[in-house]
Amino acid sequence: MAGSTEMASLEESFRKFAIYGDTKATGQEMNGKNWAKLCKDCKVTDGKSVTSTDVDIVFSKVKGKTARVINYEEFKKALEELAPKRFKDKSKEEAYEAICHLVAGKEPINVGVTKAKTVGAVERLTDTSKYTGSHKERFDESGKGKGKSGRENIVDTSGYVSAYKNAGTYDAKVKK
């Protein structure tokens, strides 16, 4: 069988794939979707000797009748089932070690994750230096939003009419 350090990294890979894409997952059980992703990302599925159908069949075989997930022990059984199929030229033990070596230390790959681009119209529309009117008031000189103070009308409670240019000059006129 494989060494203890390889088994630890195999278990770590199981946990990483088990929690992938599920915020409530504990890492103790893996669903079929994540099992298929593990097989695809770790190159267990090669499209010739091991296909995605084989991966699904093995998952159904090792899980309990009414269960929808597999634990770590069932995961190792599933790898044992796939090993002779993937490595036909090796003995059962050598094939299991080879398949464990494929999976150990790997983690889910995020392929096809879309990156946001600002080009053309989007860049022009998000440039705060070109804003006018009331929209311009919502941003400071650097283009950073002012938050609530930029969105709300803050009431002037000084007693003068709003936008009165000579506010605070009354006392100066009366003393004369």
TrEMBL record:
<keyword id="KW-0493">Microtubule</keyword>
<dbReference type="GO" id="GO:0046785">
    <property type="term" value="P:microtubule polymerization"/>
</dbReference>
<keyword id="KW-0963">Cytoplasm</keyword>
<dbReference type="Pfam" id="PF05517">
    <property type="entry name" value="p25-alpha"/>
</dbReference>
<dbReference type="InterPro" id="IPR008907">
    <property type="entry name" value="TPP/p25"/>
</dbReference>
<protein>
    <recommendedName>
        <fullName>Tubulin polymerization-promoting protein family member 3</fullName>
    </recommendedName>
</protein>
<keyword id="KW-0206">Cytoskeleton</keyword>
<dbReference type="GO" id="GO:0015631">
    <property type="term" value="F:tubulin binding"/>
</dbReference>
<dbReference type="GO" id="GO:0001578">
    <property type="term" value="P:microtubule bundle formation"/>
</dbReference>
<feature type="region of interest" description="Disordered">
    <location>
        <begin position="130"/>
        <end position="153"/>
    </location>
</feature>
<dbReference type="GO" id="GO:0032273">
    <property type="term" value="P:positive regulation of protein polymerization"/>
</dbReference>
<dbReference type="GO" id="GO:0005874">
    <property type="term" value="C:microtubule"/>
</dbReference>
<dbReference type="InterPro" id="IPR011992">
    <property type="entry name" value="EF-hand-dom_pair"/>
</dbReference>
<comment type="similarity">
    <text>Belongs to the TPPP family.</text>
</comment>
<feature type="compositionally biased region" description="Basic and acidic residues">
    <location>
        <begin position="134"/>
        <end position="153"/>
    </location>
</feature>
